[in-house]
Amino acid sequence: MWSSPGRKVVTAWIVLSVIATPLVAAFLGPAFPPGNGSTQGTEQVFDNTVLTTTITPVVCLLLVFFAYVLTQHRHRGGALVDGPPLRDDPQVRVWWIVLTSATVLFLAGFGTYELLQNGSGGGQGPSPIAVPGGHKIPVQVIAQQWQFTYRYPTYGGLETPQLVLPADSYIELHVTSLDAIHSFWAYELGVKADANPGVDNVTFVQTKGPETFHVRCAELCGLWHGYMFNNGRVVPMAQFTAWVKAQQRNFAPVAQYLPKYSTTYFPDPQRRAG
Amino acid sequence: MRTATGSKLLGVLIGLAVAGVLIGLYVNKLTLDAGSPAYTVPVTTQGGHKVVDLQIETVAAVGPQFSPAHPDYVSYLVRDAQGAWLRRTVWRLPANATVHVTIYNFDSASGLRNPLYARPQGIDGNSFTLDGKPTDVIDPNDTSHTFAVPAYGLVVPLSGIPDSAKHPCGYAPCALSLDHRTITFTFHTGKQGHFRWQCFVPCAAGWIDGFGGPMQTIGYMDGFLDVV
After folding, report:
1. How do B98-105 and B49-59 pair as beta strands?
2. Which domain holds residue B153?
3. How confident is the model at residue A272 (pLDDT cuts 50, 70, 90)?
4. pLDDT 10s digits, B18-74
5. Within this chain, do residues B79 and B105 fall inside the same structural domain, yes or no?
6. Does B113 share its domain with B19?
7. Which DSSP symbol is given to A270?
8. Is B153:B120 a contact under the CB 8 Å cutoff?
9. Which residues of A touch B126 (CB under 8 A)?
């Protein structure tokens, strides 16, 4: 069926894949980002592990073939001459089509299934498809040049510059912007959602135990984009409730000036702006 | 043959690595030097504690004296020990010090896009004085600018002069005899670092939604606290 070099390549590929694939699944995969800071984060680690494990044989084939070509088809001086003519091999062709199609279809199916499970921490737009059941605490993320602020509609529309979430809870995040396009990225929680002015981008996250996580803007948004970051916290429910009360007292003087809670905001044009 | 190729490959890799390091260092220097030169604010000591008196003013138009290329840019200025105003927005402050700030605002109101910033934060008592009167919030629509250091959680809204002010300042530097608001507050520096400050009011006249020009250029409405 195949020539001797072909058999050598296939044999080397299979041997390398059999060794590398379980190593990737067992050791490299669990170390993938974003970690286990939330249910979505854990699922993303699993997804990344599955995807990387799946492509490991593909990478092995490329490496083996690359090594074979480098060692067996080097130009070692003398006149350049044409190599042997290429010959079609129906079996190779069929196997190639079957294996690559199966791989791509599996990845497409797996990715779609995982996305539909609970959104995988990504922004789903104003009408989310993957809505988890059960009680969810809504929290609004408001981006502006160059800071995120957060509103808690179930706590009187409280707005603060800090993101604090209760542990072991489902959070329904509504991400929007007051000016340019930003992107809310809570790294350890596995949440990333674009913040567009006039758009309510909904995403969900299920917190686990207490932790500190990083919040960054992931969309180039102007001069201080690189400085648009801070830390968020997941705390026990009792601590969260106490924090809310403290914030309500702190921001009571400005409460009268905040707009009524809405999924989006359209601030009045500035008096002096162009 | 193989040795020559290997040497070339090694040379390319080393060249790429060196170029990467040099580019990184250059970008780092650009970041640290942005808005330079820094103005070192004089420090006094009270009871062994470092105290700084920082005086700044906000002006509607920085004027040709300070910015020939952009005389109409809105800007912050800082006052040096001799009383002269400088267009410097990188201020060198000591770490773990108390900073008493006085801001003279000669600009009129633009209004806040997010009313939350009408509430001062990150300063002593979360309260400042506005023309001598203790204040813990202002009408967001009366806000002219903010002085904000997000890393400190510090935000102070600056009330604007009325649109009907009879003696507004044209170009900086603005004399204190002209219409202005005086804001004072105190905050504390912590550990050493390079902390950006900014204005949260989109106050750049003539730019889309007020976000361009001086809002996007270090040296006017943005700068650093260089805490050493």
Report:
1. parallel
2. 38-227
3. low
4. 999 999 999 888 777 777 789 999 999 999 999 999 999 999 999 999 999 999 999
5. yes
6. no
7. P
8. no
9. 250
